[in-house]
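Pasting as-is:
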Amino acid sequence: RPDTVSYNNTMDGWACIGDVPKTRALLDRMKVHRTERDVHTYSALIKACVCAGHPEDAERVLVEEMIADNVRPDTVSYSNVMDGWARVGDVEKARSLLERMQSLSIWKNARTYNALIRACVCAGRPEEAQRVLAEEMETDGVRPNTVSYNIAIDGWARVGDIPSARLLLDLMKARGVRRDAHTYNTLIKACVRANQPDVAQRVLDEEMEADGVRPDTLTYTLLGRMKAMGV
């Protein structure tokens, strides 16, 4: 007879492809067979809702279904729902969940704040994204990681603001945060948006090499797209 772990693993498989009905069917089967449900069980269902593009359903699982089943949401549960709202750029919904975590004394980590930063970026609010990174995380004692910076840099890249994107890159270096290909690809993306092909090429030829970062397929795709557009 399958145990909780077996069910959770199978649910997570369906969740990764956003199949909410299949994920929920397994949860219902657990209830029928009186198999214990835990936070991982519901986190899988939340993930399914998020991957399917239904953040409102994900939040309902968090604030209604888990409570009804006497399962306490944790950092991952909240972060997953926040990521759902982030994908549609709903900063207010993402922030309200962060505030709820605060009121319930649930630990917040970089992934939690990364979701809020992404919400700001998807909403076209790069200034707010940078404020979350540079001020709110520090106030909460959470250290931004590479992903945090990459998302915030992308906010500036989307509007072609090379100086602001570069300031965040410089801040990464000053604070000893690892840069990766995605970091530099995002800076190149800013150059593409700002119609600055020479700067983009210099990022590839000089800055990435100096920083020991190997270009990937996306790096060359971005530069190729720029050349194809005649920029």
